[in-house]
């Protein structure tokens, strides 16, 4: 995807986590990230400090993605 950085994550497959790392199953999930640029400035979204992220998993909200939505 043009203009995006790709962040590939090893994500455990639900129900496959076991104590032996050799038998643990995982899948690759890719996030596509770029700087969030607005046509009109908005005070709540400071320039150079917000990201536009595509392909977040459906379960991301349940996993704590709300921490991504707060100012840093």
From TrEMBL:
InterPro entries from the UniProt entry: RRM_Rrp7
Domain of life: Eukaryota
Domain Rrp7 RRM-like N-terminal: 1-61
Any matching Pfam family: RRM_Rrp7
Protein name, UniProt field: Rrp7 RRM-like N-terminal domain-containing protein
